[in-house]
Amino acid sequence: MTTTAEPTTELGKARTRKEDARLITGRTRYTDAITPHGTLHLHVVRSPIAHATITSIDKSAAEAAPGVIGVFTAADLGVESVGLPCAWPITPDMKAPQRPLLATGTVHFAGEGVVVVVARTAAEARDAGDLVEIDYDALEPVLDMEAALAEGATLVHPDLGTNENATWAFDSGAAGTGGSVDEAIAAAEADPDSVVVRRRFRQQRLIPAFMEPRSCVVDPTGEQITVWAATQVPHILRTMTTVTLGVPEAKLRVIAPDVGGGFGGKIGVLPEEMLCVALAQRLNKPVKWTETRSESLLAAHHGRDQIQDLTITAKKDGTVTGLDVHLLADMGAYLGLVGPGVPILGAFMFNAIYKIPALKFTCTNVFTTKTLTDAYRGAGRPEATFGIERIMDELAVELGRDPMDLRKQNWITHEEFPFTTVVGLTYDSGNYEQATEQAMATFDYAGLRREQEERRARGDKVQLGIGISTFTEMCGLAPSRVLGSLAYGAGGWEAASIRMLATGKVEVVTGASAHGQGHETAFSQIVADQLGVPFEDVEILHGDTQISPKGLDTYGSRSLVVGGIAVVKAAEKVIAKAKKLAAHLLEASEDDIEFNAGQFTVRGTDKGKAIQELAFAAFMAHDYPEDMEPSLDSDAVYDPENFSFPHGTHLAAMEVDTETGRVTLRRYVCVDDIGNVVNPLIAEGQVHGGLAQGIAQALFEEANYDDQGTLVNGTFVDYTLPSAADLPSFESSTVSTPATSNPLGVKGVGEAGTIASTPAIVNGVIDALRHLGVTNVEMPTTSQRVWRAIQEAQGRSTQETPVDTHSPGAGLGSIDPNNPQGEVQ
Amino acid sequence: MIPAKFDYVRPSSVDEAVAALRDAGEDAKILAGGQSLLPVLRLRLAAPSTIIDLGGIADLRRIAEDGDRIAIGAMVPHHDVMRDDLVKQHVSLLSQATATVADPQVRHRGTLGGALAHADPAGDLGAVALALDAEFVIAGASGTRTVGASEFFVDYFTTAIGEGEILTQVRFPKYTGWASHYEKFNRTAQAWSMCAVAVALRIDGGSIAEARVGLTNMGTTPIRASGVEAALVGQQANEDSARAAAEHATEGTAAPSDADAAADYREHLARVLTGRAVLAAAG
Ligand SMILES: Cc1cc2nc3c(=O)[nH]c(=O)nc-3n(C[C@H](O)[C@H](O)[C@H](O)COP(=O)(O)OP(=O)(O)OC[C@H]3O[C@@H](n4cnc5c(N)ncnc54)[C@H](O)[C@@H]3O)c2cc1C
């Protein structure tokens, strides 16, 4: 990042995060570190089989084991009819199977809980778990989405009569927001001066892999039931606990203490959380459940998993005329809290930054006997961005154009903002030219293209590819009315309160629920500027429904652009009240009071009061106006008028060793336009982490199932997350076209890196190999896949790339989950 | 991380350890650095009744020169092996290969003896020990015996260490002045080898006088690439000879197939990496 002089306002200051000292040193409280006196521990016995009928359960040995308090099935707990909530019925006729707290009768994915053991210690619960005998009659697993939709397919939920969850469609022609794609395709096919490019892309299944495993503690011994949970959504969890179990909402207090990452993986309402509440009530004792890493990889919701069939049409001069998108999205065995809506979020992003005149989007969600999918960093938008950015490259090849030139020709120019897109969204601001110019200059685009030519010409065994992604995304979820039009089960507002303490310090309550993002620092900076108080005097409170009673939590890059603006709105109300009090105390007209940097002064005089003095005066309440309450404290609820549309240009220099297939990311340059930046250090951190996750999808990660429906890479030995050693030093910077839809001019940044980077990497890999005849490599682009793609392109046949076999050797990779008792040595 | 229950002993000498092993019977397990054993316990893939921790035996943590050999105690952590001057000078291949093992945390805990006793075919140090003809000193109730590398690796996770026995030392002949290289290919930077090639060459006047080549993860045990060695001896160390010799890399291998690499790809890798390792060793 380029360094400029430190700004005089807090906004724009690269402060180190005040929460980091305690987070980094571990001197803090994560859920598993909270153990009320007398806590009992839960262990969930899970099905090792994807699809089976439970024929018998023998609990007797487990019940007799040391320390065991009880061993329960759903029937034992009387919760057979309890179903976990799905808050997003995307169509009126959507098929929604009930997701039980524990499988009853049939298990629908490997990892589904069947029995819960409660014991005095976690070790005793775990030991007793091994003694529960469950017999299964295996049923046919349902693994392939296309096969699942075919006539006569085995049904995951026979009572639904189909494996189709729902089909959701948008057609700009029918909606009146654009032309008809069917017509655009017909026209292009008939026109020798047009091209039609069809591609199938695959979005592999990913595992969010947050650092802190999920955990829940419930203490029923008080007036309220207190729930501590490693969750992104304490407020939603409270409401949904009421909806699910019938506990009155006011009798529930949900606390998200420090939470170690989520990436969407902690927005669910978990069967284990509901079991904790049910068991705590039944046993009248505090209970705790903390998953192991293997449980987390197996049973916590997964992300992505789509088949994308895209058709793009264009004039031979490069003008894009239409885009048809057909998706199959794997829901897994049940619906997550917002699972069915995740692919639908992509509907609005396939047109991306381009002036595509006609767009049709059809998505069919499919049930399989796999772990359910739900939001994962970017949720729907990375998938869409990948699809459009990949096919823009394919179109460029078809037309013999430089891929960046083709993008330029079709993107919205900066003069055209605000711009209403083919799907009816209004992009408030942006400047694609500026971000692109800066990125290309930093990258030395022309120089690298020359090097690419040279390497091709001399047949270098290491080929160079240049990957482009000029992304935008919609975030800052969300204008409530828009959510209403999509049948989403909640609004998109956020709440904030500011309390002016007697001593002049400020407590800010936010309904956003940070789990690593740095809200405590960023929101303090915002308030310090708004109220003119020192940064150090601001305390941010969040994540406890008794402290922050109202909120919609953190996901969808919403905390700053919705939650932060709510804080601004509350600050404005504090200032209005303080002004009134100042006028009264200074014996001036309110119109004559000026507010600047924490001081309320009478215009044209040196008379004034500091905001801290006014806070004290309000506390004393000895002297205040008749028509005012003696308080400066203020609440606000902010419902955004629009989404936030960050964008950026990302460029990757990919080296591909054509002998081994090894792909190496040599350089990564990105210029993001995230509007005004509250804290450049935090923003850069969000971009870097986001990039690592997006690049990981392109190069490293994939959750693989074998033909029995068992997750074969359920440990970190074989679910290959990259480490710092796998990634270069990113060259990231920002430009700023302030958002016009909010008073701070800010845009979301939490998901940008993840959304942008995946297609940049894959486009780069293919660009390196295109001259060898390679047109596609599925993600992750492992060395084996790349090598096979080269062999095939050269007309040499090889074996299939197996993805579902267990690795012999490689330590834990040697563990076959189908034979977990098999000794390895 | 909740393993099944076990008893724990921490002897302070090899004799005590052998006695403890005998007392504990069949179900005992030795704990060295715990980098492979603990995950196995955690996932309950093994449930030993007794764990015998060798961490308290100072004798097993030494590296010493012993005539024409370098003797490395079984409990010397990877980090120390990699940094040791004697190892660098006389067994540089071992130092190079050890530097590719996992990450610094694992290298500080994991041990040479533990890695070799564990005998994971994807482990990096077996191919080195085999190529360099290391000797394994094994202590048991009836005393100490020495086993050559060619007999040590028996099968997948199986070595010549018998029940009631402990690996105490690994002795490497000196390869002073040899050129060496360990070429490792893995999925992520700190992962196990999909395939790797260990090469040590004695180069005399530009031509290869002696060659030692070992392969990692090309069978159920480390594999000595004798065909490659034979093809190299007498040749100038150059691109052509390296490539020609590399054609022999898959002789006698039984490449496994897994998600990272099916057998045909692994065989291809073995050839490419062998060529590269030879050239890199030759400099
Ligand atoms: C994340 C990670 C990545 C890794 N990556 C690599 C890699 O890239 N390359 C690589 O080669 N290795 C790798 N390893 C393994 C590492 O080298 C381990 O240290 C090694 O496999 C085991 O050594 P240890 O000292 O930890 O043994 P332990 O785990 O304590 O023991 C392993 C086995 O050997 C037995 N054993 C140990 N010592 C003796 C002895 N003296 N006598 C008889 N039996 C004994 C034990 O009973 C046990 O069965 C990795 C490990 C981890 C955790």
From TrEMBL, chain A:
Q: Which residues form the Aldehyde oxidase/xanthine dehydrogenase a/b hammerhead domain?
A: 25-140
Composition-biased stretches (Polar residues): 794-804, 816-825
This protein's record includes keyword Oxidoreductase: yes
Entry-linked InterPro entries:
Ald_Oxase/Xan_DH_a/b, Ald_Oxase/Xan_DH_a/b_sf, Ald_Oxase/xanthine_DH-like, AldOxase/xan_DH_MoCoBD1, AldOxase/xan_DH_MoCoBD2, AldOxase/xan_DH_Mopterin-bd_sf
Q: Name one Pfam family in it.
A: MoCoBD_2
Q: Which UniProt keywords apply?
A: Molybdenum, Oxidoreductase
One GO MF annotation is: oxidoreductase activity
Q: Region entry Disordered: which residue ranges?
A: 793-825
Required cofactor names: Mo-molybdopterin cytosine dinucleotide
In its UniProt entry, what is this protein called? Carbon-monoxide dehydrogenase large subunit
Q: Which organism is it from?
A: Pseudonocardia sulfidoxydans NBRC 16205
TrEMBL record, chain B:
- What segments bear the compositional bias annotation Basic and acidic residues? 240-250
Alphabetically sorted, this entry's keywords are: FAD, Flavoprotein, Oxidoreductase
Where does the record place the region Disordered?
239-259
The record, for Pfam families, names: CO_deh_flav_C, FAD_binding_5
Question: Where is each FAD-binding PCMH-type domain found?
Answer: 1-177
* Cited InterPro entries: CO_DH_flav_C (IPR005107), CO_DH_flav_C_dom_sf (IPR036683), Diverse_Substr_Oxidored (IPR051312), FAD-bd_PCMH (IPR016166), FAD-bd_PCMH-like_sf (IPR036318), FAD-bd_PCMH_sub1 (IPR016167), FAD-bd_PCMH_sub2 (IPR016169), Mopterin_DH_FAD-bd (IPR002346)
**A Gene Ontology MF term for this entry?**
oxidoreductase activity
Name assigned to this protein: Carbon-monoxide dehydrogenase medium subunit
State the source organism's domain of life: Bacteria
Under the heading Gene3D superfamilies, the entry gives: 3.30.465.10, CO dehydrogenase flavoprotein, C-terminal domain, Uridine Diphospho-n-acetylenolpyruvylglucosamine Reductase, domain 2
**What transmembrane ranges does the database entry give?**
none
